[in-house]
Write a sequence for this structure.
């Protein structure tokens, strides 16, 4: 038995070469260089330099090819022999009507071929049985001992092999034709051709096996078959779809009568199946069982042959009798007749199925097997489709990603598969694809498309496989024809397991293979010395194959395991060729291999000069094998000999040797032809004839120099080695066809000799010149001419040529040095080119070179000058201290010499010391400009480099000490500049004074000076502002604070300024909270400042009112399209119910887009319909957001803000604007009080109060409380010095909207009550004369312009409302809006209450603790500020509505107020003049607050 795949041992690795870029430039030269090493292995691998990466030039979209089919176990020679044997023995049984079933032994299929061979080797069946040596047979088959396997093997041999062997030997005439009828015995057998071949296959194609041609489809199994066979019954494979192969069914004869007279012989076949997924399933080799199938008609004819003329033909071929017709058998092959009892051994009964006589069986089994070869697939692929198929096959086979499968695993699995008769894996290989048709993978210069510069570089590279065969050193460049595969590359597209079998190249040429991309390709190689040994081993191990195909190894279809070859002494090497690597095979080196996966390779042949002897031997080998040649070797030699001057010298020498041998052999053959009696001759240009017209009919060699032909037999010719095999005609009818005469051949040989020997003449001249044999040195031009001759005549790169090149290089170098030396003296170069020693060596070298150079005289002159200078310099150094000028002049003279003199170095040291000391002296001089630290450090570094001396050491120490002190002070200054704790100016001044005497420029000290200067200027600015006549503005103070914070100096005044700025910002923030609404778009200054003068503002609002009054009312039924319309704050035109008109600007707005007043601003204890009928007291006044821009705080709140403002030593524009606003509000208040105190208005107010009392008297007696707010509005009853009390129900903050939380639960019922009272409202209730109404309306408009809430404004509003009919539309609109708001607020209140209840329990104490912590942290942060401002700043408390802020001043603030008044009078007289009546009010406000 063959060893398992796990026993495969990889052969040793072949040599791997990695050329340098210089070596890589000459491809054939590098191959010739490595040939002595690589040729011993047969193959080698070359890794190009890493930067050599040719682009892939194949047009991928247009590349289509049809691959070959490879069944792996048919590739291996020994496995193929076994399969052929199984085919023969299967045929033997099948033509007798029985199906061969291969038994299993020890869970393995029995190797019938090995069993047969071992039995023969052990002496035959009889001898083994006689000596009872079946156990030895089992041992040789590697079965374990002790299991009685020998008797089992004997049984199988007797039943299957022995009858076949008997027929093969002719010792028996018949055999048992029913060895497998007993189904019980056959349970351990497996049918033939079914052995576990269900492997994953790569593509869709039918069975391509040579055995598949002889088979026909299997009949469908019958129901009886299914019932008897458990596998069929279980799988139910009959019907459409893929079938389970390997069940070994036989069509049963349903009729029990004699087979010969009833039924046709059934054919036994096994179906060829195809997998559904595109992968070919394992195919079974099938065989046609009868070349002439029998039918019922033919059977009937035979049965009716009863006439007398046919009786004699029905006689037994053994006993020659025709009796006992019922026991007479008819052969289905030859129609001979045999009695069943005449056969040896006799048959007990008529057999069923096809039966053939011993003669037919012997003839059928003796037929030779078919020649094996690959077949083309039927499917065409692109690179993409083939790659998808290949990757899918490999990943499915190994059950892992393709690139993760180790190469060792693939290698072992490959050799296991090719050696297995059980597993049948089929793959496809795109091999031998012509690059001329499909395009090369390398860029090609003559391609149709334009090449990029990079592609052009690779298109001309010698390693381009399109270029290498036609290089000058290559022999194939002298063949005009494009020989595909040799001169023109072939392409190879591989997949895993696709293989190339053992072979050598045509004409034993070199080959080179380049893997463009993809997975590796595994190679095996055998050197040329072992080629015949390999052929001998393969013939000895598989003689059956070579008997039928003597040139089997030339067909590239046979593999053999490398381990098998190595075990028989054949040296084998291996390698894995990766992408971007070359593999080279040498002449007559057998090689094979397989692909590890999907890849793309390209290969071509090439021939060098050293190949010529091998090529001649190959022709002789082909002649013995009678194999056709690819080209004529003689023609190639003669073509190169015809133009010797074009040949490379090495090639010319090799061609001369080959030509000489060829001429000698031609003379011998023509002499033999003359001796035979052939005298006729005729010149023939063989190169013009097709190859098939000049091939020897005996050995198939392509003739060129000569051939023998016959006048009477013009269809053929022979080479001169087979002159006796042409024809049987007379020699006089035969004639010689020749290309050259015997006189022309020596002439060609002589020309080659001249070309080959030209090198010797040249070499002799070079040798004489280099060795100065004649005593005369050649000039440089003569040596250059010899080198040019070698280049022009393409002499090889020999040692002599290299010596000549080296000599020329040395001469050129010497001349270059001399020219540089002389030109350097002329140009007064500062840097010497040579040392004195080198100058002397140069002189000696020029004298020793075999070249006459006239520049040697110049070198001697320079040497004399240098020696004289050297003496003078020594004298100057001996008399130190010399003057610096003398030393400098000597140094300059030495530099002009162009030669480095040792004494010049000492002079240079002295000069450098003097120069450095002078620089240090100048840098430290008091009167000099101070140098920086960088200059000092540079001087110190320079001092460390110069030679040491006492003066230099002293200066270096002083400089180091000075630098240390300067760096220390610089570090202190840096600390002052960068420290977080800023230092006062006095500290900085002390540091600066300490550094005044340091003669170094210190950047940090300078920065410290600048900072101190800026700080002093800042202090001066602060003093100027604080001591000036006016308080500074806030912007000025903020600028000073920003500048002071940036200074790296501790400033005492900075803290005071920061406190002032912080206090001013605090006042501004409180004022903003007092005035500005939440999320207001206005600033405080925009709210409190006048847009323009008071009179202009009044005129502007009157103009705006006229404009807005002219706009159509949104409540009107239709609007003019052309008239201007009002625009609400939402950007839409207000229209319909819900629109409100501003009482100040008369513009219209959506009620839902603006804040609207509430008719009832606060809940009452009891409201009756009678009291509510005082409709003029309802809050229906509406000011739009553009007119009421702020909260409109009360005047008392504003006065408190002004008191706090007077304590600030800072001027704020908002404060000045607020003072003006207050002055204007107080002036308006005085005028309003005067108007309300007039007799006419007082009477009207009294009348209005009486009317209200009447309304209050209407309710039922049980109503206890009345609504008496009208009396509070009477200005007569209040003193002029007191503040007018608020009208109950009005909003304190000037906003007409109350928060949803303040709405009483009974508000909904009040709104319903108000709605029911609308029809009862009547008016006007007062008659206002125009003389009274106009001033009041004007006062009302001016009061609405003020951003202050005044009670007089509300009184005037009620009086004007009572003097006109009630605005029912507005009241109705306000009621609807208030209802909507009430519904929304109730929903929000409920949700808020639920949320508060959930959070109340969780927060509790935690909230209180957090509040206390926050208050403490705030106090801690503001303690510094509060300590300064705490007694000066008043605290504001915001009411429940968030509007009124009241100030609580300290008890002793009156003096401060007086002081502030004085300061205001002195420092801000302009402001006091603008507000003359403000100070008494401020004093009054303060005194009132003190009383509170």
């Amino acid at each position: 038995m063959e060893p398992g795949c796990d026993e495969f041992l990889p052969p040793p690795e072949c040599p791997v070469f990695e050329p340098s870029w210089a070596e890589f430039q000459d491809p054939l030269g590098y191959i010739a260089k490595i040939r002595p090493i690589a040729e011993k292995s047969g193959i080698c691998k070359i890794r190009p330099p890493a930067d050599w990466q040719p682009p892939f030039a194949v047009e991928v979209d247009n590349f289509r090819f049809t691959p070959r089919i490879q069944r792996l176990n048919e590739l291996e020679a020994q496995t193929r022999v076994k399969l052929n044997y199984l085919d023969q023995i299967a045929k033997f049984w099948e033509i007798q009507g029985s199906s061969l079933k291969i038994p299993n032994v020890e869970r393995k299929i029995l190797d019938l071929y090995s069993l047969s061979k071992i039995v023969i080797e052990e002496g035959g069946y009889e001898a083994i049985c006689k000596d009872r040596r079946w156990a030895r047979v089992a041992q040789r088959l590697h079965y374990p001992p002790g299991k009685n396997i020998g008797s089992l093997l004997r049984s199988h041999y007797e039943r299957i092999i022995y009858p076949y062997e008997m027929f093969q030997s002719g010792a028996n005439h018949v055999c048992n034709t029913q060895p497998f009828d007993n189904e019980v015995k056959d349970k351990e057998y497996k049918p033939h051709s079914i052995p576990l071949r269900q492997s994953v296959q790569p593509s869709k194609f039918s069975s391509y096996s040579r055995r598949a041609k002889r088979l026909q489809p299997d009949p469908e199994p019958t129901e009886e078959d299914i019932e008897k066979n458990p596998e069929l019954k279980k799988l139910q494979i009959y019907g459409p779809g893929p079938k389970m192969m390997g069940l070994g069914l036989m069509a049963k004869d349903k009729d029990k009568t004699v087979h010969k007279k009833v039924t046709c012989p059934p054919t036994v076949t096994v179906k060829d199946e195809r997998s559904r997924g595109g992968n070919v399933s394992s195919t079974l080799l099938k065989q046609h069982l009868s070349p002439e199938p029998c039918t019922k008609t033919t059977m009937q004819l035979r049965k009716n042959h009863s006439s007398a003329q046919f009786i004699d033909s029905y006689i037994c071929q053994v006993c020659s009798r025709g009796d006992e017709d019922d026991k007479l058998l008819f052969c289905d092959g030859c129609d001979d007749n045999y009695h069943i009892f005449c056969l040896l051994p006799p048959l007990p009964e008529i057999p069923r199925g096809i039966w053939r006589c011993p003669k037919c069986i012997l003839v059928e089994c003796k037929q030779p097997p078919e020649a094996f070869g690959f077949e083309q697939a039927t499917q065409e692929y692109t690179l993409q489709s083939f790659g998808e198929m290949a990757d899918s096959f490999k990943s499915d086979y190994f059950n892992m990603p393709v690139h993760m499968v180790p190469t060792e695993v693939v290698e072992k699995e490959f050799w296991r598969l090719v050696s297995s008769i059980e597993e049948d894996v089929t793959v496809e290989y795109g091999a031998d694809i012509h690059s001329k048709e499909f395009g090369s993978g390398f860029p090609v210069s003559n391609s149709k498309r334009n090449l990029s510069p990079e592609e052009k570089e690779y298109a001309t590279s010698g390693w381009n496989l399109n270029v290498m065969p036609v290089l000058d050193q290559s022999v194939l460049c002298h063949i005009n024809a494009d020989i595909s595969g040799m001169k023109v590359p072939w392409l190879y597209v591989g997949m895993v397991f696709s293989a190339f079998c053992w072979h050598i190249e045509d004409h034993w040429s070199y080959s080179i293979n380049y893997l463009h991309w993809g997975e590796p390709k595994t190679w095996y190689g055998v050197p040329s010395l072992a080629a015949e040994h390999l052929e001998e081993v393969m013939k000895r191990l598989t003689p059956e194959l070579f008997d039928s195909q003597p040139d089997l190894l030339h067909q590239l279809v046979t593999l053999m395991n490398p381990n098998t070859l190595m075990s028989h002494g054949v040296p084998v090497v291996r390698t894995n060729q990766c992408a971007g690597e070359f593999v080279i095979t040498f002449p007559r080196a057998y090689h094979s291999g397989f692909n590890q996966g999907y890849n793309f390779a390209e290969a071509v042949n090439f021939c060098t000069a050293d190949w010529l002897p091998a090529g001649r031997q190959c022709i002789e080998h082909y002649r013995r094998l009678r194999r056709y040649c690819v080209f004529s070797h003689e023609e190639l030699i003669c073509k190169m000999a015809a133009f010797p001057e074009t040949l490379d010298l090495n090639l010319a020498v090799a061609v001369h040797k080959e030509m000489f041998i060829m001429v000698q052999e031609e003379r011998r053959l023509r002499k033999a032809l003359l001796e035979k009696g052939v005298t006729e001759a005729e010149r023939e240009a063989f190169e013009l004839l097709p190859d098939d017209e000049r091939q020897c009919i005996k050995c198939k060699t392509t003739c060129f120099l000569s051939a023998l032909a016959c006048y009477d037999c013009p269809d053929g010719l022979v080479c001169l080695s087979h002159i006796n095999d042409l024809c049987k005609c007379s020699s006089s009818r035969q004639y010689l066809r020749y290309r050259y005469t015997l006189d022309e051949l020596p002439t060609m040989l002589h020309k080659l000799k001249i070309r080959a020997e030209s090198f010797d003449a040249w070499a002799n001249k070079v040798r004489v010149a280099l060795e100065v044999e004649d005593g005369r040195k050649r000039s440089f031009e003569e040596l250059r001419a010899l080198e040019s001759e070698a280049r022009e005549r393409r002499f090889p790169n020999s040692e002599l040529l290299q010596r000549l090149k080296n000599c020329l290089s040395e001469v050129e170098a010497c001349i270059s040095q001399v020219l540089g030396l002389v030109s350097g003296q002329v140009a007064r170069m500062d840097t010497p080119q040579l040392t004195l020693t080198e100058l002397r060596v140069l002189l000696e070298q020029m004298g020793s070179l075999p070249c006459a150079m006239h520049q040697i005289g110049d070198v001697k002159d320079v040497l004399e000058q240098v020696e004289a200078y050297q003496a003078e310099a020594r004298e100057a150094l001996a008399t130190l201290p010399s003057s610096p000028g003398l030393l400098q002049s000597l140094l300059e003279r030495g530099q002009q010499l162009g030669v480095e003199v040792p004494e010049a170095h000492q002079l240079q040291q002295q000069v450098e010391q003097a120069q450095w000391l002078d620089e240090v002296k100048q840098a430290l001089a008091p009167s000099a400009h101070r140098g920086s630290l960088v200059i000092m450090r540079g001087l110190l570094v320079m001092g460390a480099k110069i030679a040491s001396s006492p003066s230099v050491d002293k200066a270096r120490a002083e400089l180091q000490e000075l630098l240390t002190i300067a760096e220390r002070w610089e570090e202190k200054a840096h600390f002052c500049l960068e420290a977080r704790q800023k230092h006062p100016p006095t500290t900085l001044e002390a540091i600066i004074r300490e550094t005044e005497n340091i003669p170094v420029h210190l950047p940090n000290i300078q920065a410290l000076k600048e900072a101190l200067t800026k700080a002093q200027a800042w202090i001066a600015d602060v003093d100027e502002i604080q001591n000036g006549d006016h308080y500074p503005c806030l912007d000025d103070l903020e600028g000073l604070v920003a500048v002071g914070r940036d200074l790296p100096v501790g400033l005492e005044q900075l803290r005071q300024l920061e406190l002032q700025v912080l206090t001013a910002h605090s006042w501004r923030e409180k004022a903003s909270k007092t005035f500005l609404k939440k999320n207001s778009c206005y600033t405080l200054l925009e709210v409190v400042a006048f847009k323009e003068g008071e009179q202009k503002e009044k005129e502007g609002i009157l103009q705006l009112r006229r404009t807005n009054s002219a706009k159509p009312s949104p409540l009107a039924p239709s609007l003019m399209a052309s008239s201007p319309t009002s625009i609400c704050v939402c950007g839409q035109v207000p229209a319909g119910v819900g629109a409100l008109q501003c009482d100040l600007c008369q513009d219209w707005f959506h009620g839902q887009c603006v804040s609207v007043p509430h008719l009832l601003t606060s809940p009452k204890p009891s409201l009756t319909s009678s009291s509510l009928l005082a409709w003029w007291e309802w809050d229906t006044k509406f000011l739009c957001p553009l007119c009421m821009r702020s909260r409109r705080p009360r005047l008392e709140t504003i006065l408190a803000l002004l008191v706090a403002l007077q304590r600030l030593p800072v001027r704020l524009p908002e404060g000045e604007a607020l003072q003006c606003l207050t002055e204007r509000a107080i002036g308006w208040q005085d005028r309003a009080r005067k108007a309300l105190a007039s007799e006419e208005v007082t009477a009207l107010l009294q009348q209005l109060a009486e009317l209200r009392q009447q309304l209050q008297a209407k309710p039922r007696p049980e109503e206890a409380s009345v609504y008496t707010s009208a009396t509070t509005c009477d200005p007569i009853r209040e003193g002029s010095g007191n503040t007018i009390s608020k009208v109950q129900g009005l909003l304190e903050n000037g906003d007409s909207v109350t928060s949803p939380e303040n709405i009483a639960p009974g508000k909904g019922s009040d709104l319903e009550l108000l709605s029911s009272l609308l029809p009862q409202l009547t008016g006007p209730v007062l008659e206002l004369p125009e003389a009274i109404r106009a001033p009041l309306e004007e006062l009302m408009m001016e009061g609405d312009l003020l951003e202050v809430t005044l009670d007089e404004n509300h009184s005037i509003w009620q009086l004007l409302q009572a003097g006109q009919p009630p605005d029912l539309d507005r009241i109705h609109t306000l009621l609807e809006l208030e209802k909507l708001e009430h519904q929304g607020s109730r929903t929000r209140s409920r949700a808020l209450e639920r949320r508060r209840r959930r959070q109340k329990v969780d927060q509790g104490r935690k909230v209180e603790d957090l509040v206390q912590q926050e208050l403490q942290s705030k106090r801690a942060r503001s303690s510094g500020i509060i300590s300064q401002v705490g007694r000066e700043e008043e605290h504001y408390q915001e009411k429940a509505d968030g509007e009124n802020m009241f100030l609580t001043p300290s008890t002793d603030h009156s003096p401060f107020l007086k002081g502030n008044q004085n300061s205001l009078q002195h420092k801000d007289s302009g402001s006091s003049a603008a507000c003359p009546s403000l100070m008494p009010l401020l004093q009054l406000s303060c005194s009132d607050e003190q009383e509170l």
